[in-house]
UniProtKB/TrEMBL annotation:
Organism: Anaeramoeba flamelloides
Keywords recorded for this protein, A-Z: Initiation factor, Protein biosynthesis
Protein name: Eukaryotic translation initiation factor eif1
Keyword Protein biosynthesis: yes
CDD domains assigned: eIF1_SUI1 (cd11566)
Coiled coil (UniProt feature): none
GO molecular function, one term: translation initiation factor activity
Domain of life: Eukaryota
Length: 112
């Protein structure tokens, strides 16, 4: 009689699944929101930017590119948040994609 050997199962995608699990657990989309202040004045907020980026340099470039004022605010719940004057959501989204900071799927635009 022939002997049947117990063959080990081999999953060629095992390594890939582990890599994607670690990447997706860390992934947070960047949120772009607009808040209305007094009357017609609006502020755009940018949340969940990775800590690997220099926020001071980013805001300096954004101020020049969008011709607006801006600041970095430290929020207890959200961490460091960038605030820009005016409704800059679409412009910021294009900027983040052009500079390869994130992809189109990694941006959530909130508001009207």
């Amino acid at each position: 009689m022939t002997e049947i050997k117990n063959l080990e199962t081999y999953d060629p995608f095992e390594d890939v699944e582990e890599e994607t699990k670690t990447k997706t657990s860390v992934f947070k989309p960047i949120h772009l929101r607009v808040k209305t202040r007094r009357g017609k004045k609006k502020i755009t907020t940018i949340e969940n930017l990775s800590s690997e980026f220099d926020l001071k340099m980013l805001i300096k470039v954004m101020r020049k590119k969008f011709c607006c004022s801006g600041s970095i605010v430290n929020d207890e719940r959200l961490g460091e948040v960038i605030q820009l004057s005016g409704d800059q959501r679409e412009a910021v989204a294009e900027f983040l994609i052009e500079e390869e900071i994130t992809t189109k799927k990694g941006i959530k635009i909130h508001g009207n």
